[in-house]
Design goal:
The chain is α+β, with helices and mostly antiparallel strands. It has twelve helices and 24 strands.
C-alpha cells in the first residue's frame, strides 16, 4: 500500500500525558504580506482588490459551497509526478485534509503551504493525509513545491473541475481581471483563458467520506489555521490509543488491513503473514533520503516492543519511538557490517527554537545486521531506562529524554528490501 505524501499527514493528541507542540499561528505571517502590499501598491489598486473580495463574498459562495455534514465528492486526479490518486481510497484509510491553493504566483498560498509543511511530523500520528489540490498546471505545481522546499505532490484540479463540484469556484470581478490576466499571466499557469479561481478552502473528511470541518473564506488573505486543522483531525482520528490504557499492539500481517498499521513510502505487500517492500529510489529522493517505513500510531510512555524482520541489502534498519510533542524519543539504528559506522542506541536533545534536535548516542556496541536472515529486536522502555536485546546481546541505557510520552512506534530502512513478520508492543 503506497501512501502519497501529498503531504501525508497525521496528528495524535497526547491524552493526559503531555502538551503537544502548538503550531505557530499562520495569521501573523499573512498579515505581514498584507502590510507589505499596502506599502508597495497605491491606494487605488488596494481599493480595487478590497472591493473584489467584497464582490465575491456578496455572491454567497461561502454559504453555498459544500459544508460540514455533507458528503465529500470523490475524484481521481493526477499529481505532478504523473501518478493518479483516487480520493476515496485515501479517506477509507483515515482522515483526509483537502486543501486548495490558487497557484504558486500567490504569496499567501506559498506561506500557507510552508506552514502546513512544517506540521507534517506532527500530522503523521493519527493517519490523516493532507491532500493539496490546485488549478495550476502540473509543471507549475512542481515548481511551486521546489521553490518552497515542500514534500508535497499537488494534485491537478484541471479547469477547477472538482472545485466546481464543491461549489468553491468564482469568476474574477471585472475590475481585477486585467491584473490577473495581464500582469500575473493566470492563463499561463492554468493552461486556459478562464478568469476564475477557487477559494483557498480547507476541508477535513472522515473515513466515511463525510465533511467534518470546512474553512471557507472569500478573502484570499485569510487561511485555515494549522492548529484548527490539526484539532479537527484529532477529533476524528480513529487509530489513536490512549497512553497508559494497557492496550497492546500485535500485527502478524495475516490480514490485509490493520486498524493501526500505516505502510508508508513504498509499495508494501502484505501477504501470507509477511509485510515486504523494496526501496523505490525515486521515492527515497522525494522523501529526502528516507526509505520505506512501517508506522503504528499508539500513545504510550512505558512499553515493551518486539519486532521480527529480515533485511536484504539494507544499509540501515531503524527502530524508533517518536515523542508525543514531536521528534524522536528513542531509537535503535542497526547497520550492516560493511558500514563505516557502528550500530547505535540513541535519544535526542530537545529541539531548539528554529533548529533541529541532535542525537545523543547511548551505546555504540550494538551488533550489525545479519543480511538475509530473520532477526528479532526487543526493546523495553521504563521511565529513563531502556533495555535493548539484539544479535544475542543485551544493552541497558539511561537518559532523562527516554522518559518522554510517546505517540508512534515504527520500523524503517534504507536501500535494499525489508520483510517484517511480527510487530508487537505491550504497554507496561
Amino acid at each position: 500500500m503506497r501512501l502519497i505524501i501529498l503531504a501525508l499527514a497525521t496528528v495524535v493528541a497526547a491524552v493526559g500525558m503531555a502538551q503537544t507542540t502548538t503550531p505557530e499561528p499562520l495569521a501573523p505571517k499573512l498579515q505581514e504580506l498584507v502590510d507589505g502590499a499596502s506599502k508597495r501598491y497605491p491606494p487605488e489598486v488596494l481599493s480595487v482588490f478590497k472591493d473584489g473580495v467584497q464582490t465575491v463574498k456578496a455572491t454567497g459562495i461561502e454559504q453555498s459551497a459544500r459544508q460540514v455534514g455533507q458528503g465529500a465528492i470523490d475524484a481521481e486526479l493526477a499529481g505532478w509526478d504523473g501518478k493518479n490518486v483516487r480520493l476515496s481510497e485515501l479517506w477509507k484509510q483515515g482522515p483526509v485534509v483537502l486543501m486548495w491553493y490558487r497557484g504558486g504566483w500567490c504569496p499567501y498560498c506559498n506561506v500557507q503551504l510552508r506552514a502546513m509543511q512544517h506540521q507534517l511530523s506532527a500530522i503523521e500520528g493519527a493517519g490523516a493525509k493532507l491532500v493539496v489540490l490546485t488549478p495550476e498546471l502540473p509543471e507549475k505545481a512542481k515548481q511551486t513545491a521546489e521553490a518552497n522546499d515542500l514534500d508535497l505532490v499537488a494534485l491537478h484540479d484541471k479547469d477547477n473541475a472538482l472545485a466546481k463540484q464543491y461549489g468553491i469556484v468564482f469568476d474574477l470581478p471585472a475590475p481585477i481581471i486585467p491584473m490577473y490576466r495581464d500582469r500575473l499571466k493566470l492563463g499561463s499557469y492554468n493552461g486556459n483563458d478562464k478568469m476564475e479561481l477557487p477559494l483557498s478552502a480547507t476541508y477535513v473528511i472522515d473515513r466515511n467520506g463525510k465533511i467534518t470541518y470546512a474553512y471557507l473564506n472569500a478573502d484570499y488573505t485569510k487561511r485555515a489555521e494549522p492548529a484548527e486543522v490539526l484539532a479537527a483531525v484529532q477529533a476524528i482520528a480513529p487509530t489513536t490509543q490512549t497512553a497508559g490504557s494497557g492496550e497492546s499492539l500485535l500485527d502478524d500481517y495475516t490480514a490485509a488491513e490493520h486498524p493501526t498499521r500505516q505502510a508508508m513510502r513504498g509499495d508494501w505487500e502484505i501477504k501470507q503473514g509477511i509485510a515486504s517492500v523494496k526501496q523505490d529510489d525515486a521515492l527515497y529522493k522525494k522523501f529526502k533520503n528516507h526509505g520505506p517505513i512501517m508506522v503504528y500510531p499508539i500513545l504510550h510512555r512505558d512499553a515493551a516492543a518486539v519486532v521480527e524482520f529480515k533485511p536484504q541489502g539494507c544499509k540501515t534498519v531503524v527502530f524508533t519511538m517518536d515523542a508525543a510533542d514531536g521528534g524522536h524519543a528513542f531509537r535503535v539504528v542497526l547497520r550492516t557490517g560493511a558500514a563505516d559506522q557502528p550500530s547505535t542506541i540513541q535519544t535526542y536533545t530537545e529541539k531548539p527554537a528554529g533548529g533541529k534536535a541532535k542525537p545523543i548516542v547511548l551505546s555504540k556496541d550494538v551488533p550489525h545486521l545479519d543480511d538475509g536472515q530473520w532477526q528479532r529486536i526487543e526493546v523495553k522502555v521504563q521511565g529513563e531506562r531502556a533495555t535493548v536485546s539484539f544479535g544475542g546481546k543485551t544493552f541497558d541505557v539511561q537518559h532523562p529524554r527516554i522518559a518522554q510520552p510517546k505517540k508512534i512506534v515504527k520500523l524503517g530502512f534504507s536501500f535494499g528490501e525489508l520483510a517484517i513478520r511480527s510487530f508487537e508492543l505491550d504497554q507496561l
